Structure formats: C-alpha cells, structure tokens
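Students often ask why we bother encoding 3D structure as a string. The short answer is that it lets us treat folding as translation between two languages. Here is a chain of 494 residues written in the first language.
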Amino acid sequence: MSAGAKSGRHSPELSQRRRYLVLAICCLSLLIVGMDNTIVNIGLRTIKTDLHTSLTDLQWTVDAYTVVLASLLMFAGSTADRLGRRRVFQLGLTVFSVGSLLCSLAPSLGWLVAFRAMQAVGGSMLNPVAMSIITNVFTEPRERARAIGAWGGVVGLSFGLGPIVGGALIGSVGWRSIFWINVPIGVLAFVLAAIFVPESRAARPRRPDPVGQLLVTALLAGLTFAIIESPRAGWGSAPTLTALGVAVLAGVGFIRYEPRRAEPLVDLRFFRSAPFSGATAIAICGFGGFAGFLFLISLYLQGVRGLSPLAAGCCLLPMGVLTLIFGPLSGRLVGSRGPRLPLVLSGGFLTAGGLLLIPTTGGQSYLLLIVAISVYAVGFGLLNAPITNTAVSGMPNAQAGVAAAIASTSRQVGAALGVAVAGSVLASAATGSLRQQFDAAGHTAWTVVTACGVAVLVLGLVTTGKRAGETAKRTADLIRDEPELAVSAPRAAP
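And here it is in the second language, the structure alphabet:
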C-alpha cells in the first residue's frame, strides 16, 4: 500500500479540479527528468567535439547522473515521508534546476560530470516523491489508476519531445542550451507546488540507514567506475582493481549488515520471492539494454551517419510515440492477463530490435534503422508496467511500496550499467573516431543490447509461472505480520 494511503497526516479533502492540478504539477517534474535523459544523449556528440573528450568521458556524462540517482532513490523517499513530501519535492526541484543551470555553464567535462551528479541529487527527490504525493491525493482506487495512467503517458511525451527539442536547441543555440529548458519548468513547478500541493507526512516513516546507503553508493560507484575506465586503464590496473575491490567489499558488507537492522534499507528476504527477484533482474537487464541502445544509437546517427542533432532527434521520435501508445496498453494487459504476456512480448520485441541493429554499418538504409528503432520502442513501451506489478505480486500491502521502490532503483542501476558496458565495448575495440570504433566493435555492442532483450524474455517466462508464484506466497507469509513502514515509491515506472 502506498505511503500516502497510510499517511498519519492526511491532507484535507481536495476538489477534483485541485487534485488534477496537483497531478499536473507532479507531472512537470517527470517531464523535465524524462526530457533531460533523452536530450543529453542527443547532445553527446556535440559535447564530445566541443569539450574535446573521449568516449569514456562521455559515459560519465550519463552515468554520473544515473549512479547517484540509483543510490539515493529510496533515501529520498523515506526522507520525504519523514520531513514532508511537498518540502522535499520543492527541494528536489531547486537542486535539479540549479544543477541544470550549472551544467550549462560547465567550463570542462569534469565540471559537467560534477554538475550532472548534482542534478541527480535533485532528481532523486522528484519522481518517487511526486508519485507518493499523487497516491496521497488520489485515494479512490479507480481515480488513482487514471492518475497513474496519465503519469505514465508523460513518460512517452517526454521521450518524444526530448530528441526533437534537444536537436533543435543544439542545432540553433548549442549544447549548453539543452540544460536551460529545465530551469523555467522547474521554477514554475516550485511556485505551483507551494500554492496548490498539500503537505503530507507518513505516520511512521522508515528510520534512516546511513550505513546501508553508503554501502549501496560504494557498490554502484565502484562497479561503474571499473567498467567504464577498464578500456583506458586496463582490467589489471590498480585503479580498476581498487574499484572492483571496493564494489565487492561494499556488496558483501551490505549483505551482512542489512539483515541485522530492524528497518533495513532493503529487506533481503524479498529476494526469496522468484517474481520479485525476477522483476529486479528484468529491470536491470531491460533498462540496461535500453540505456545502452539510446547511448549507442545517438552516437551512431551523428558520429557515423553524420546527421545533425535535429535529424537524429527525428529518427528517435518513434521511441516517444510508441512508448506513449504501448505503455498504457501494457498496463491494461497486466490488469487483464497478468504480467507474463507483456513481459514475454517485451522481451521478444527488444530482442528483435537488437537483432536488426547488429549488422548495422555506415551504409545501412534509414528505413531499416527506423524499423529497428520502432520495434525496440514497442518492446520498451511494454516493459514498465509488468516490472512493478511483478515486483509487488503476492507481497503484503505493508511491503508493496518498498518492493516498488526497489524495482524503481533497479531500473536506474540497469541504466548506469547499460551505458557503462555498451560504451566500454566500443572504447576497448579501437581508438580514434566514432566511425572507427563502431566499425571495430559496433556489432559486439549491439549484441550486448540484444542479449539484454533475450534476458528479459527468458526471465519473464521463468519468474511468472505457478512455481514462482508459490515462492512469492511463502515470502509474503514470512513478512506479512510485520508492521507497515511507509516508503515513497513509484507505482508506475517513471
């Protein structure tokens, strides 16, 4: 059950108009975060040229954001439950907007990466907290479902607008302008939230887990650093081995420490449920493949095919349109048929889209590229809804929010690793221009993306069957009698 539904401090009953105004304000945060992801990918080629960076450096432009975001999502949710959801939401808007402005002023890649990390700190306080606000305001189940459906539609809208808006801005003003667009929207959302969004807190928020938080951050940062930097430094180099050592020690420490806490950051018993473990793995593989796909295709279209940022954005327009169409369709399939069918369909389309891209060369027809992008987009559109549904399947209401929060975090972990792996495959194969790197390792990189689709397909089949459901029931019985702890967690995949 959502934190909002169990909040000990309910907001007064709001009119329908006021509730949907709150929904629109929360959707503004999703719009700028979603657009930022696709806009930055469209701008990578121009950033590389302007700041004279390597492919490895470009990976950090994306992963500095996703690693920090993945590390802080659950912390931000529990902080909002404790200090006030509107307050944390407004703080997130402020930090994200200031970080965006600083990104536009970055004099070098190092500063850009640092400011991207700052953006992520703010971003961690936006979508999960906004979803908690929505579930707190929309308490009637049918109306809440419609509100979450509208929220999911904004995902497709942001993906569709991002490449076009980003391409137009880069082509006319320069790459720095892609960060400006976040500032006025962030300021508008801040002001409207202060006026119209009611404050709410959880009756019994989760206690902070600073040790667990530190261990998660060290694990993700160490693993990502090793993957990204290994082509440049070598797998046997001191920096790479040190980063891997930090990741391993942090992972072991987390596994040993968390079960000893009364209110752990992550209850490791959840992973005894095959559907929950499957949802976590599917989120990592699916979003890892998608992040790698977006990173590679943006560089390919501009660096190999020589398209302008706007033309590249137009090629990616099917991503947004088809996500907007198939996201709600997937939700209806989950409601009527369960998560198995949309997961299998998603894995099939992701695999097919990746297979179409493996033979891609500098002379590939644009029609085939658009078909491949479209097929992959259908798979991604079908992916989000069944992940959350599978994660919370069979869980007692008291733990559903926590399970959804872990699934959301897994999406960001996958995105960070996807960019790290795809970029490292290219960087390790050859030095020189992007064309040379794609000629040497493009087929291998697209194979990695395809393998992620295969993993979604197989895991969707294995972790949604009858036996898997029995493990979910046993896990639910194990933790059912424990007191409910509120967690700000998204119900739909942002």
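Translate back mentally: Residues 152 and 492 are 7 Å apart (CA to CA). Keep this in mind for the problem set.
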